[in-house]
Amino acid sequence: MGLHMQVIIALLLGIKRNGHIFIGLLLGILIGCFFPSEQYPKAYNVLNFVAQGFIDIIQMVVLPLVISAIIIGISNIGDSKQLTKFGSKMLLYYGIITLTAVSIAAGIAIVLQPGLNAKALVNPDVINNVQGFVADAIQYQKENLAQIFMDIIPKNPVTALAEGKMIPVIIFVSIFAIALTKAGEISRPLVSFFESVFAATMKVTDWIMYLAAPGIFALTATAVGNFGLAIFGNISKYALAITLALAIQFFVVYPLMLKIFSKVPVFRLLEAVSEAIMVAFGTASSSATLPLTITCCEKRGISNRVCSFVLPLGATLNMDGTAIMQVIAVIFLTQMYGVTLTPLLIFEIAALAIIASSTSAGIPGAGLITIALVLNGIGLTPEQLVLGFSLLFTIERFTDMMRTVCNVASDAVVAAIIADNENELNYELLTNSEGEAKA
Ligand code: ASP
Q1: From 33's CA, which of 64, 113, 176, 202 has a CA 20 to 30 Å away?
Q2: pTM of the model
Q3: Range of the structural domain that residue 57 is part of
Q4: Mean per-residue pLDDT, 159-183
Q5: Side-chain half-sphere of 247: how many Cα atoms within 13 Å?
């Protein structure tokens, strides 16, 4: 069976197993298409309330989950040799996935040329709306380039925690967890405490998932109802370029990675995480999906040691879908303004997109903020950027939902590969879709 067929079968099996979420997703798209928010503001107030409530409720478990997962993940891995091995494998696979992503994105943007003649499509109303945002983003980025990197140092872990800043939190917790393992037996009570926190947050995640169908319905309906489908007419080539690049990443790159680096059956893994994939699409947030990604992977045999180390780090650092959007968006702007795309400039854009995407938070819209980093040095004036952004904005939510699917799926792919390589994968559970009942 061809690899892409395996992916399709996985998705169909996933839909069958999570029919209620899929129906929520489908109904949301239909309601959003046929009943736009402008015409039904009151109904959309209710939908917004449900959608926001669902996101907030999942967000509630993310911080305790990330902290406890990393602490038990690192302390379970134990000795520093093993940790270095896991860590370097994780960086290697995340690196390969992101490098492939930016190469595909650049290739597609160069061939399809989505930005050619795009200037004529700009809607003046949208320009007014995004003017402030873009001007601020560019200004901030120009003045604070060094600060962007300094911000990831957790100088006050409590403030970072309170503000939900994931990267500094993860850095602090990882250092703390390594120190705990070095401290030896004395740290056991604290690790046990975090094991209990982890078990409890997983339980809460299971309960939250009872709300997944209405939550995903409301999220999709509000997203589609707000942007409407008419916008695609204007910017269809840009939408097509992003969709194509993300589809290649999902249908070709992930299966190939699994096949080359492990013996994990493609369709088993994607079927196992299909619930997380649907929630990623609905929420457009890797962080909010993280509890579910961990649940899906653990229930289907990827060891807790791997899940709790690789997935939280991946949900924050591994953003291949975001990198794809950033490369295509920036090349789109260069084409729109006739900036010559030298090989060096393309390389620069791709390299900066790798950095910018990994500093993006796993929340909706984060990738369009850190894109300011990639825009540095392509030689456009702020006015030109405002104009370009006004086009990108029109379908931002749509591309966000799609790119988050890749961000989440690639975390699971890397976790599965590492688990396979390190004998941390229970194949019996993976190949048994009823596995979760036994787990
Ligand atoms: N929404 C994306 C995520 O959570 C990040 C982004 O590209 O905006 O993974």
Answers
A1: 113
A2: 0.82
A3: 3-430
A4: 86
A5: 9
